[in-house]
Design brief:
Number of helices: 4
Shape: elongated
Number of strands: 2
Helix content: 40-55%
Largest sheet: 2 strands, antiparallel
């Protein structure tokens, strides 16, 4: 056989034994690649399906965003007499709508502190608190 660089070799330049070795090497590489892709496919697909299922189950009973913009909480219905004297109140939940501007600053800070003590330290999602809640 004539000594040539690997790039310049053609199939005819290889002996039958070398050709078999090359074929086996290519096949073993292809098998390893197929195994790699199938393994990732079989690992990623179930994880993606589980994440999708959890997302759908958690968001199924959430209201539409337009409903949240037009939210009207149940309030007290008050009945007055002709002389503007209160006769009765009807309600399922005794709520009175108070605008945010009429609430004291300390009350707002108390609600924020009770719900999320680190509210002003993160940009909307507190991963540390989520991790802590996961392990509780």
């Amino acid at each position: 056989m004539v000594a040539r660089s690997r790039k310049n070799r053609t199939r005819q330049a290889f002996s039958p034994i070398e050709q078999r070795r090359l074929r086996k090497r290519r096949q073993s590489g292809a098998k390893a690649l197929r195994l790699f892709f199938w393994t990732w496919f079989l690992l990623i697909l179930p994880v993606a399906l589980i994440i999708g299922g959890v997302y759908v189950s958690l968001t199924a009973d959430l209201p539409d965003i337009t409903d949240l913009r037009n939210y009207r909480p149940p309030v007290v219905t008050t009945v007055y007499a002709d002389d503007h004297q209160k006769i009765a109140e009807f309600y399922e939940e005794r709520r009175f709508v108070v605008p945010l501007s009429r609430m004291p600053e300390r009350l707002i800070q108390a609600f924020v502190a009770a719900e999320d003590a680190r509210f002003f330290d993160h940009r909307g999602v507190d991963f540390f608190s989520i991790l802590r809640a996961t392990f509780k």
